[in-house]
Amino acid sequence: MARQDFDADGASVRKAVLAFLEKPDTPPITTRELLRRLHVPREAGASVRDAIHELLRENKISRSGNLLSSARSSGVTGRIVVDPRGYGVVKPDGGGPEVYVPHRGLKGASDGNRVKLRLAHARGQGRIEGSVVEVLDRKGRRVLGALRLQGRQMIVEPFSPAETAEAFVPESRLEGAAPGDAVEIELMRPSKPGGRTEGRIVEVLGKVGEPGVDIRVVTSVYGLQGEFPREVLAEAERLPDAVPSAEAARRERFEHPPVVTIDGETARDFDDAISVEALPGGGYRLFVHIADVAYFVQEGSVLDVEAQKRGTSVYFPDRVLPMFPEQLSNELCSLRAGKDRLVQSVILDLDADGEPVSVRFADGVIRSAARLTYTEVAEIFEGREAAPSKPVASMLRVALELSEKLLARRDARGSIDFDFPEPKVLFNLEGVMTGICVEPRNRAHRLIEEFMLAANEAVAGHLADRGTPCLYRVHDAPDPLKIEALETFASGLGIRLDVDPASIRPKDLQRFLKRAEDRPEYPVLSQVTLRSMKQARYSVENTGHFGLAAPVYCHFTSPIRRYPDLVVHRTLRALRRGKTAGAEDLVPLAEACSRLERAAEQAEREVLLWRKIAFMRGREGEVLEGVVTGVTHFGLFVQLTETLVEGLLHVAELGDERFWFDEKRMRLRGERTGTAYGLGDRLDVVVARVDPVLRRIDLVPEGRQGQGPRREGRDGRGAPRRRTPRADVPAKRRGGETRSGRKTVRRRRG
Q1: Contact at 8 Å (CB) between 221 and 332?
Q2: Residue 173 and residue 109: Cα distance in Å, rounded?
Q3: How many structural domains compose the chain?
Q4: Alpha carbons 723 and 663: distance in angstroms, whole number
Q5: Residue 152 maps to which CATH number?
Q6: Which positions ≥6 away from 496 have C-beta within 8 Å?
Q7: How many Å separate Cα 577 from the centre of its chain?
């Protein structure tokens, strides 16, 4: 609109404003933004504001919060996607920018619902915020949850973090289910916003905590594939029982130096093997042999389509949901010792410092000389166990030497390592869970990790140099806002990041973590740092891998269990044969594989949480050592050192005084005594209550040891700079909060 238009009569101005707001592509907009978009001169601003007020009085436009929109489009509808972290995003049916819905605005809406929104605010960076007015299609959906009695009502509490609303089940529709059962319900009647929906029991899966119930629930919640369809198993059965001799004879055979596999004690599929030799002049030759799944699984076959649908194998403590049937994953494509196996091989020459000099790729055949475990190899390195043969022992010594140089080289370029301890669930011969232990990583783990990283980088670099479309594994730089939050958190602990968040490099985060290595808060600080980074994903566009400080990277080394690796195998072989494919089909495939990978990881964490809770049942009253891993206004999250199980110690249990929450320093401090609890403090705690339905462990303090808690003087030294609103309210009076995995979520109590 030109300047002179605003000098006309009021009717013309009103008409112009209304015409702009009624355009199909005009999103809800603030008054200030409207004036800017219409190029309104400062002196004409008052007349436009008057026109806006008149249109509001006439109900021709509407205002929601600070947003203006046409009355025709004021009721925004769309399908909501609920993030496991508790917020939702709605893409409006009529187009326009996405609407962010905070947890408090979900009003019972769940992932996938069609909803009607009331727009509330326009936030920074153009983000629009709203809240749910009505759920339009709740009826008929199915939800899995735990049945519990609340007052006189039977309530189903959803297992999925994306399901935000509880439902009640009338007695007439219980179908014999009892409190504590895991059930699947069908939602029958939509509720009012914030209210409960009525449901009926479709299936009773068993008691929460019973063996196998956790797997049934989690696979259903995350949409994972269990048993293979009959036609997939039939195609697998038609595969040969052994490697075809004609194909083996056609390929390059790798026998010297001796080839070995190194895996965990319970591993059943061995898809990678290695060997290393020293070269004259101080260099090395690294051989990485990967099972040639692509030879047996033709693109577009029944096996291939099923593998693409699964995207990845899923690993639970006592079982695997494999990407391929056992005939492939545990037989033909498992690099078993003493048997010929087809491989795709990466032969990488490196100089004396571990710097790559040249690389070649081959269709190969190997016969593994030994099936070794990480523990065995670590003991060989320490001289506590003999190698299977002298040639193997000699090869392993050279391999260790090279792996240490590769690690040093990766460290020098700024690669970030998060060496978190991993819990391992133990079972007896009958398959009954007997405990949880912490399995440390040793030099053998790191050796295999370095060799696989080197092979992946070599393959990705080769494909990128030739401009071949590829499924890259990319990891983008962190969001500057997340880095600012990390810097604020760390400064409260007395650790400075000292970088520009907008131009942070991997080396900056690496140095930051190394400065904190000897501090008690380091495990928590490294977790917070990890959460401040973006998730790695698959992409046709190479944007580099921030965490590895690698300019180009892909997944090549696990085609038995990751579909993108199989795609890269096919791409590499096609390039060797002078063929290339377009990138069009790879774009949706990259997105699908990323999504399936995230679902599998979430499911694995969820089952592990179920097992941890099950293990802690019956241990009420025990005194255990723990470390404070989280601090909130309602209490402390304490990770038990023995098992890595996490429980909640309510602030009400800390003592007979008011505690203030210092958000910047992540600490609770007693108002009367100055006693303070912070990240990294070691505490002896008593297991007070284990709730398998809510998957929560409540703790109470039993004593103090190690580095915490600290006492801070009442003179203000070390005291919080400001009080967080309501931080003094005990958790008992505020309703329950619980933590699931890495995320904190609130659960309503009725």
Answers
A1: no
A2: 23
A3: 5
A4: 8
A5: 2.40.50.700
A6: 487, 490
A7: 37
